Amino acid sequence: MNLLYQKKLLSRWLIAILWCSIIAPIFQHVSVMSLPNNETVPAVMVFGDSIVDPGNNNYITTLVKCNFPPYGRDFGEGNQPTGRFSNGLVPSDIIAAKLGVKKLLPAYLDPNLQLQDLLTGVSFASGGAGYDPLTAELVNVMSLSDQLDMFKEYIKKINEAVGRNRTTMIVSKSIYIVCVGSDDIANTYYQSPFRSAEYDIPSYTDFMASEASKFLQELYGLGARRIGVFGLSVIGCVPSQRTLGGGLNRACLDSSNQAAMLFNSKLNSQMVVLGKKFSDSRLVYLDSYNGFLSMLQNPAKFGFEVIKKGCCGTGDIEVSILCNRYSINTCSNTTHYLFWDSYHPTQEAYLALSSLVFDNKIKDFF
């Protein structure tokens, strides 16, 4: 065996060992689901905000980042901040794994992506984005319009690499996930003066639903046919909202929850209309509100004990750059925490929520 061949063999062996020891352990909790009629999904494409951003914000100029400790504390073998706004996996990873596509869904802007990474899907999501274009503008992140532009670029890239026929198949048969809108209400409407002076909540949620409809129609126009859209969660109950408006008892902020429910009903209605208009599409509403509410109302059933504060720092207000290696009193074990920081759930919560919200809807994509 010549020396060059031995070096190549050793290199491959080390890569295999690295994958098994660092990457593989985090997927032991995610089981591949059986799809109806022996269907297969070629790729998963994701659009949205920090709930499903696996690191796109690492590559743009914004303060909305988390590519530093303690983020990623439980990712892989531990202490691997990737730009995911959690201690480990985020829903885009979990859904891609459930569908048997791949174990991690990478960020589209990652300069290390290979062709195979692109062919099996990416996330275009950007932490801080919203249906309202102003939401992304306020924090200098990529809007949904920017994300669609990246998707157009993506289509062009794979078309050049594998040809029109395979590209058409990938685009039409992939599953698309949209998860966005919480920042519109929590931040743009309630924490800044720009929209609340112009809209009340009924008219602002009308505007959001109209923007959502336009986005979904554009996505359909680019070839997407299997589209799942997460409704807004119980945003008034995230720790930062409790801190800002929940009083001494840190109660849930009812106004934010009412706004979320109002938007969700309008989003659902828009999706029904679009489903009739585009009869060859599958538009699937994913009810994260009631899924997360069940976890809040009966945390012990899901193995959680701490629901009013995050693990990072005091757990009351720390998020993004405020949650860092210098944050004192960060919990040592996230297992019983519903929230990682003051805005984003833990990997454990995401695993439970994904099962509650996604598993029984999978048949509706086909």
UniProtKB/TrEMBL annotation:
Molecular function GO terms recorded: hydrolase activity, acting on ester bonds
Cellular component GO terms, alphabetical: extracellular region
InterPro entries per record: GDSL, GDSL_lipolytic_enzyme, SGNH_hydro_sf, SGNH_plant_lipase-like
Domain of life according to the entry: Eukaryota
Gene3D superfamilies, A to Z: SGNH hydrolase
Residues passing through the membrane, by range: 9-27
CDD domains, alphabetized: SGNH_plant_lipase_like
UniProt keyword list: Membrane, Transmembrane, Transmembrane helix
Pfam families assigned: Lipase_GDSL
Family listed: Belongs to the 'GDSL' lipolytic enzyme family.
Protein name: GDSL esterase/lipase EXL3
Protein's gene: LOC100799299
